[in-house]
UniProtKB/TrEMBL annotation:
Organism, as annotated: Lysinibacillus sphaericus (Bacillus sphaericus)
GO cellular component: plasma membrane
All copies of domain Tripartite ATP-independent periplasmic transporters DctQ component, residue ranges: 24-154
Protein name, entry field: Ectoine TRAP transporter small permease protein TeaB
Subcellular location: Cell inner membrane
């Protein structure tokens, strides 16, 4: 089981990193072609945009895994550990509900784009492929929240490791 967990983490990092690096490389290529060689490539901007979007959405789970999401914790830091645990349970359960709704509507959007046959303007990529990142990222994000919920319930979170503090 630990092997699958590590593999999952590596795949998330590799895929998110791959799409980010690809997007940045395409932007660099586009700038070089436009300003140095005076031959702008219309497809570069569109493909770079999609690559960065995919990298961002696939990185949601990574940010959650490393607890790097934006959070306002002024009041949270003043709570007792037992109250923090309750608040974390409620927030995580609400986040799981959000991920389920997000994934469901992501699938609906992909299905609508697939049946409509819509394609992108410059390259002609089927838009359902572009929007496929929504349900994929939703499932990955959902799995990370379920993992977080299990850790909170087991008391494995660093925050709950020592209830005396």
């Amino acid at each position: 089981m630990k092997f699958l967990h590590k593999l999952w983490g590596y795949l998330e990092e590799i895929l998110a990193g791959f799409f980010f690096v690809t997007g940045i490389a395409l932007i660099f290529y586009g700038v070089m072609m436009r300003y140095i060689f005076n031959e702008p490539q219309a497809w570069v901007e569109e493909l770079a945009r999609y690559a960065i979007i995919w990298g961002t959405f696939l990185g949601f789970g990574l940010a959650l895994r490393h607890n790097q999401h934006i959070q306002v914790d002024i009041l949270y830091d003043k709570l007792k550990p037992s109250n923090k645990r309750i608040l974390d349970l409620v927030a995580t359960c609400l986040s799981i509900v959000f991920c389920l709704i997000y994934t469901y509507y992501g699938f609906i959007l992909v299905e609508n784009r697939y049946t409509s046959g819509m394609v992108s303007l410059d390259i002609g990529i089927p838009m359902w492929v572009v929007y496929l990142v929504l349900p994929i990222s939703g499932v990955l994000f959902l799995l990370r929240f379920v993992e977080r919920l299990v850790n909170i319930l087991r008391g494995k979170d660093e925050e709950y490791a020592n209830p005396l503090t």
